[in-house]
Amino acid sequence: TIIISVMAFTAASLGLLVLPADDAKQKNKESSIEEDESPVESSLSFVDDVSEVLSSSRAKWLFFGTFLRFSAGLSIGVWSASYYKMTFPDNASEYAVAQAVITAVGGSVSGLAGGAIADWLAQNADEGEDTVGKKLWIPVVGSVLAAPTFYLAVHADSFETAMAWLLVEYLVAECWFGPTISSMLSTVGSKVGGTGQGLFTLTGAVANLTPTAIGWLYGTEKGPESSSELVTLLSTVVCAAYITCALCFAVSAQQKMPESSKKLS
């Protein structure tokens, strides 16, 4: 009886030692299979995240407006220096200083003001009110005001007047950034917020095609009056981009908030 008991105990102990090893091997096999499938699953997950970001009408119109707004700003940044140096050659050094001050002061003040106004609208909104839609009217107003001020900045008769209008243009235009990012993140929801931010950055990169197109058109039309050709292209493209982006932001503001974003917010 004692021998049988000892044998039974030994068999049970061996069983406990062998079974975990088998389970470990099985788990290792399953994990290796999962690792083999992970790249495919990751790519599918990324595509799903991008689709979810762009699933609502509000998000689509917001990204359309973002592309156009980046197009306007990048075109100014790339081509305004060339235009002012041709138009006011005696003020080339003054332009470099003025542009730096305008960008730093005007852009910063406008950006901070836009973010502060967006926060104030959110804090003072009534319960159940669409605060995201209200925030989007900030870039609408800023872009509408930016179009005529930029036109005046590139059609001024004197250097001082041109720089004054350019400062006004920065003050009214750069208020768009904070409210737009805040609205985008609230629209897509926290689940795909990182993907949304990445698409926002990618949109800005793609918008570099606009100043490139201006350069191509300017290169094909350049003649004795090259500055007049450039100002025509620049003012047309920039003002059209400002007006159309304002329309896109306005349409986005009037769309309904996605239900998924409401639940996550």
Describe the structure.
- The chain is mainly α and 265 residues long.
- It has helices at 2-53, 57-87, 92-123, 131-135, 137-154, 159-173, 177-188, 193-206, 209-221, 226-254, 259-264.
- Mean pLDDT is 84; it is low at 1-25.
- Helix 1 (2-53) packs parallel to helix 8 (193-206).
- It is globular, with a radius of gyration of 29 Å.
Could you name the key traits of this structure?
mainly alpha, 0% strand, disordered N terminus, 265 residues, 11 helices, globular
Tell me the layout of helices and strands.
Elements: H1 2-53, H2 57-87, H3 92-123, H4 131-135, H5 137-154, H6 159-173, H7 177-188, H8 193-206, H9 209-221, H10 226-254, H11 259-264
Helix pairs in contact: 1-8, 2-7, 2-8, 2-9, 2-10, 3-6, 5-6, 5-10, 7-8, 9-10
Q: Which sequence of SSEs, written as H and E, runs from N to C?
A: HHHHHHHHHHH
- Give the end-to-end Cα distance, rounded to a whole number of Å: 70 Å
What is the radius of gyration?
29 Å
Q: How many strands?
A: 0
Distinct helical segment count: 11
Q: Which shape, going by the Cα principal axes?
A: globular
Spans where pLDDT lies below 50 across 5 or more residues: 1-25
Mean pLDDT over all positions? 84
Helix content estimate: over 70%
> What portion of the residues fall into strands of 2 or more residues?
under 5%
Structural class: mainly alpha
Task: Describe what is shown at a glance.
By secondary structure, the protein is mostly helical.
